[in-house]
Amino acid sequence: MKVLVATEKPFAAAAVAGIKDIVEKAGHTLALLEKYTTKEELVAAAADADAMIVRSDKVTAEVVEAAKNLKIVVRAGAGFDNLDLDACSAHKVVAMNTPGQNSNAVAELAIAMMIYMSRGQFTPATGSEISGKKVGIQAFGNVGRLVGKKAEALGMEVMAIDPFIPAEKIAEAGARPAASLEELYSSCNFVSVHIPATPQTVKSIGYDLITKMPKGATLVNTARKEVIDEEGLMKALSEREDLKYITDIAPDNYAELKEKFGVRVFATPKKMGAQTAEANINAGLAAARQICDFFATGCTKFQLNKF
Ligand code: 3PG
Question: CA 263 to CA 49: how far, in whole Å?
Answer without folding.
Answer: 45
